[in-house]
Write a structure and sequence with these properties.
Blueprint (H helix, E strand, L loop, with lengths): L1 H5 L1 H17 L10 E9 L10 E4 L5 E3 L5 E7 L2 E8 L6 E8 L4 E3 L2 E3 L9 E4 L13 E5 H6 L5 H5 L5 E3 L5 E3 L7 E5 L2 E2 L29 E7 L13 E7 L7 E9 L16 H6 L2 H6 L1 H8 L1 H4 L1 H5 L3 H26 L17 E11 L7 E13 L8 E13 L5 E15 L30 E18 L2 E16 L46 E20 L3 E20 L6 H4 L3 E7 L2 E12 L4 E12 L3 E3 L21 E3 L3 E14 L3 E12 L3 H5 L1 E3 L3 E4 L7 E15 L2 E23 L7 E4 L5 E25 L5 E16 L4 E2 L5 E2 L8 E2 L6 E10 L6 E2 L2 E2 L4 E10 L3 E2 L16 E2 L3 E14 L2 E10 L13 H10 L13 H6 L10 E9 L1
Parallel strand pairs: 1-7, 1-8, 6-9, 13-16, 36-40
Antiparallel strand pairs: 1-4, 2-3, 2-5, 5-6, 10-15, 11-12, 13-14, 15-16, 17-18, 17-51, 18-19, 19-20, 20-21, 21-22, 22-23, 23-24, 24-25, 25-26, 25-27, 26-33, 27-28, 28-31, 29-30, 31-32, 32-35, 33-34, 35-36, 36-38, 37-38, 38-39, 39-42, 39-43, 40-41, 43-46, 44-45, 46-49, 47-48, 49-50, 50-51
Helix pairs in contact: 7-10
Length: 1006
């Protein structure tokens, strides 16, 4: 009743607004990601400032007029490359080309005009490239359109990994400088992308794979990309670590478009043997019918021949025995043929076994934009799309992951000073719960090892379907040349589904009788031939999981900016977000009402969280100092009921521990945080700039931490809606130094201090899961554990990050970033909590140790060479002109792990004292452009992992770790025990990365 009464008016209003946007058929974008151009206009001869000079940006309606001091400023400039002109009566017009504007940066462009009594030809020059970035107050990386489309990556996620501070965890989620997953603020056109569904169904504290797919924007649609690895200004929030700012293209005055197709040939994309190769143990044991006859007595019993033909078996007559032996021979051969059918890949295999090497990767990219109507400046559009089919590396129920992303931007400027932007996007992903990451541990056949393999029972996991539809409307009102107001309203619908599918298996359909009397049989019954110690038994009635997760969210932003004088750009803003969430999930059960009636794993919640924020900041620009100072305040509430007695929460299901608990609840508390931030840059001339940065940052806990309610014969897990925000204090000192006219060195020392991080705790409860006994209270009543989340984690990261780059992009260009860092983590307080004060902890003391995700050394290098239009002739032939060659190199330390020899005291608190080997890779991309019949044509080849480098997979089984450390034996080696589980079923997991891949692309543009 709480949802239907207290939220009805608000929900009705929200749905009304969303319907308006849906009718417009538009989604996610805004104007927020922009830069500024300023400068001084003087007389070439006298060096005196000129007043009243008109500064115009070619192809836009943006411009300014110089003041009495010759100064001008142009605000709200979208990132990109522009031509800028200055004109004044009596002076020759000056045009500066290739003026680059970056997100949140000030680009300085000065003009010197030559006096003339007659009309002179226009003076056109290339704008001087920026040297040190004078207003950079933290570690930032900018990527322009040309760099993004040329690098050897699949999408935008790959570009993020070119920065040493950005890393992806095994599940495919990004972390920055030691942060956890989901602590990065990812924005597309100023609107934050929040993933409301991150966990796997019916489980507690686990994540599904590859949640970062939402950030994989079509590179053809990207105008500019900026990554902030250090602190950031008060404008950005709900993030502890980094900010990613993506600006997509708007239409140009002329219609332009491009279509690109990319393919990768079919093949095996993991190291080691083919999974269904007949050299494996199961084929050695059962592939030959002679081996079945060698175990004749066992097979007779397992097939039940002696029971079904018992009278014939007891008959000692020669004819009867001959007939009985012929039946045995027939039945064994029949069983062997069914076994072969069950174990041989094919399109109609009843267990889903298929040849995963036969599928080809295909990808289609397009972008088209231009004017709508006669006035090219009044109404423009840009429509982009991507459709990608990527076969999974290992057998999975989906076989091929399908990714779709369509984005439409429409900008309208009906009258001067008013600009409106509507935007709409549709994104869909079809894949698996445990597949999608490039790490082989999360690319299919989950939990193998330490569990048995499901490679002959591929269909047990359901296929995941995620869909996001979003709409955004933004209004920009230029109040004056020095101030503007911006308002954005966004609506987003997310849907995540895992539908049940009933399976063919020995529990539902099998060969119960024999080859003559069971023509429907497809699956050979249970028996020794299934080697159940290695392979999953075929007992499932249905797929393992069910999930129905639906979220509607609304976001409203209002910002006011004012350039006060030359030195102060003040910005004030408010943010508000509201979610309407429904989640229903089940694990290991096909009953939809497991949450109430059955002792399975289930979860359910209906919640209405909200988040509000306000900020004020001032960018102060002086000759020898630039200061970004501001403060941000955030508040949120999961808006959910909390058990009044955490040691006895009400449990509504059957088959629990016997104690229903207390029904009393209270509403969750509102959490708030105030975050001051300060960044200062001290440019010394044109070639040197020092910076310091200090700030407080926080992020709201993810929804599954606050809202999950999971059952298993009582409560097995309960989210904590009263979780406090996760907090980080960041310190950074950096210096930029020009080593030559176009080579810049950037060095940053940083320290992040994290507290109130999320960790697990367990309550000894009367209504916890009866499968997790927790002892007894002082009155001898039984207690049972349930797990929850608490702010009992902490950590820190300290390091140095170095970047060397060539600022000009003509001919050779490069960017090399290297970080040397170490991350620590720890937890305090008791892990197990009892009402009477008894506590236990899984550690002897609260202390920091090397984080399990730490990568001490990280190196990323990008090298590009562009051959100009009139260059690249070879023996008189124009072979290489307009060719771009891009090479990337990455190297990083392996993750740490704990290993203690048998003779060492394991109670000494040793944690993460060893490390896996270095991981490195070369990637190559070659693109050749030319003109054919008036069209721009490009052909390319992308080679990933050029030299087939191997990255050792972290091991889940203690014996595998011991074998590798002490004897150098991986899971791909038989070693001293060729029958061990890991070697028999998971030799392909020895190396987690993908072997060499070669992609071919062809594009046509106009």
């Amino acid at each position: 009743m709480r949802a239907s009464v207290s939220h009805l008016p608000l929900l009705s209003c929200m749905r009304f607004l969303s319907n308006i946007f849906l009718l417009l058929s538009l989604a996610t974008a805004g104007f927020a990601q922009s830069g500024k151009i300023s400068g001084l206009v003087t007389d070439e001869r006298t060096r005196e400032p000129l007043v009243g000079v008109n500064i115009l940006m070619d192809g836009t309606k943006l411009g300014a007029t110089s003041d009495v001091d010759g100064r001008y400023v142009i605000l709200k400039v979208p990132p990109g490359s522009y031509s800028l002109s200055a004109s004044l009566l009596g002076y020759a017009r000056v045009m500066k080309r290739e003026v680059e504007v970056f997100i949140d940066r000030t680009t300085t462009v000065d003009f010197r005009l030559t006096e003339s009594s007659v009309e002179l030809q226009e003076v056109s020059v290339v704008a001087e490239r920026r040297k040190v970035v004078k207003d950079q107050t933290s570690s930032e990386y900018d990527y322009a359109e040309k760099q993004i489309t040329a690098v050897a990556t699949e999408g935008l996620r790959g570009v993020l990994e070119l920065t040493s501070g950005f890393l992806r965890d095994p599940q495919g989620n990004f972390t920055v400088r030691g942060s956890g997953a989901y602590d990065v603020n990812f924005q597309i056109n100023g609107v934050s992308q929040v993933n409301s569904s991150t966990s796997s169904p019916g489980s507690f504290g686990s994540s599904k794979a590859d949640n970062s797919y939402k950030y994989d924007v079509n590179p053809l649609a990207v105008q500019s990309l900026q990554l902030i690895a250090g602190g950031f200004t008060a404008e950005y929030g709900n993030a502890q670590a980094g900010v990613v700012k993506v600006v997509t293209k708007e239409g140009t005055p002329q219609l332009k478009g491009e279509l690109r197709v990319e393919v990768r040939p079919s093949g095996q994309y993991h190291f080691g043997n083919y999974l269904y190769d007949q050299s494996h143990l199961e084929w050695q044991r059962w592939g030959s019918v002679e081996n079945w006859f060698a175990r004749r007595a066992e097979i007779i019993s397992q097939l039940g021949i002696d029971q079904r033909y018992s009278q014939l078996a007891r008959d000692t007559a020669a004819a009867a025995q001959a007939l009985y032996n012929s039946i045995i021979d027939r039945e064994i051969r029949w069983a062997h043929s069914v076994w072969l059918n069950n174990h041989t890949p094919s399109d109609d295999n009843p267990l889903g076994v298929y040849d995963y090497r036969d599928r080809m990767y295909t990808r289609y990219l397009w972008g088209i934009g231009g004017p709508l109507g006669r006035d090219a400046d009044a109404l423009r559009f840009y429509f982009s799309g991507e459709y990608r089919r990527n076969p999974t590396r290992l057998p999975t129920p989906e076989k091929t992951q399908v990714f779709q992303y369509y984005l439409l931007n429409v900008t309208y400027q009906p009258i001067p000073n008013h600009k409106i932007k509507f935007s709409g996007s549709y994104q869909k992903y079809r894949g698996g719960i445990w597949s999608g990451s490039e790490d082989i541990r999360w690319s299919g056949i989950a939990f193998t090892p330490p569990g048995v393999s499901s490679k002959y029972y591929v269909l047990i996991d359901p296929v995941r379907n995620e869909q996001t539809v979003a709409q955004t409307a933004t209004w920009l009102y230029s109040i004056s040349d020095h101030s503007y107001l911006e308002a954005t309203l966004a609506h987003q619908q997310e849907k995540y589904e895992l539908p049940y599918e009933y399976l063919t298996g020995t529990a539902t359909e099998r060969d119960r009788l024999d080859s003559l009397n069971d023509p429907r049989g497809q699956i050979l019954k249970d028996g020794i031939w299934w080697d159940s110690q290695y392979f999953r038994p075929l007992f499932n009635f249905s797929t393992n999981y069910y999930q129905d997760n639906r979220t509607e969210s609304w976001n409203a932003n209002v910002d006011y900016s004012n350039q006060i004088g030359r030195s102060h750009l003040v910005k004030v803003g408010v943010r508000a977000a509201y979610w309407d969430m429904l989640n229903n999930g089940v694990n290991s059960s096909f009953l939809a009402n497991t949450y109430v009636t059955r002792s399975g794993f289930a979860e359910y919640y209906r919640a209405y969280p909200w988040n509000v924020a306000a900020f004020v900041q001032d960018k102060m620009e002086f000759a020898g100092m630039i200061v970004n100072v501001g403060v941000r305040a955030e508040a949120y509430n999961f808006n959910e009921e909390v058990a009044a007695d955490p040691f006895n929460p009400f449990y509504q299901g059957e088959g629990g521990a016997g104690n229903r608990g207390k029904p009393e609840t209270a509403m969750s508390r509102t959490q708030s945080v105030v975050m001051p931030r300060l960044g200062m840059s001290f440019p010394i001339g044109e070639n040197t700039a020092f910076r310091i940065q200090y700030g407080h940052f926080a992020s709201m806990p993810i929804f599954s931490h606050g809202l999950s309610q999971r059952t298993e014969s009582g409560w097995i897990g309960r989210g904590n809606p009263n979780l406090k925000p996760k907090k980080t204090i960041n310190y950074e000192f950096g210096v930029q130094q020009m080593l030559s006219d176009d080579v810049r060195l950037d060095v940053a020392l940083y320290y992040n201090d994290r507290n109130d991080q999320i960790d697990l705790s367990r309550y000894a409860s009367y209504s916890g899961s009866r499968n997790r006994p927790a002892g007894f209270d002082r009155q001898n009543n039984p207690l049972y554990f349930y797990t929850t989340f608490a702010n009992r984690g902490y950590g820190s990261t300290r390091g140095i990050e170095t970047r060397l780059e060539k600022t000009s992009r003509e001919g050779w260009s490069y960017r090399i970033s290297y970080s040397l860092s170490q991350s620590f983590e720890g937890r305090f307080g008791a892990q197990d909590i009892y009402e009477d004060g008894r506590t236990t902890s899984n550690r002897a003391a609260a202390n920091e140790y090397v984080a399990s995700s730490d990568r001490t050394h990280n190196l990323r290098a990008l090298l590009q060479y562009y051959v100009g239009e009139n260059e690249g002739r070879f023996f008189g032939l124009d072979l290489f002109s307009q060719m771009t060659v891009s090479l990337t190199y990455s190297a990083q330390s392996g993750i740490p792990f704990t290993y203690t020899p048998a003779f060492e005291d394991v109670t000494s608190g040793i944690v993460n004292n060893r490390r896996y080997p270095l991981e490195s890779s070369f990637d190559l991309n070659i693109i050749r452009e030319f003109t054919l019949a008036g069209f721009r044509v490009n052909a390319g080849m992308r080679v990933m992992n050029l030299f087939n480098n191997k990255w050792l997979t972290p091991m889940d089984v203690a014996d595998d770790v011991t074998s590798w450390i002490e004897n150098g034996i991986t899971v791909a080696d038989p070693g001293n025990d060729p029958l061990r589980l890991s070697y028999v079923v998971a030799d392909y997991r020895a190396y987690r990365n993908i072997p060499r891949q070669i992609f071919f692309s062809l594009g046509v543009g106009f």
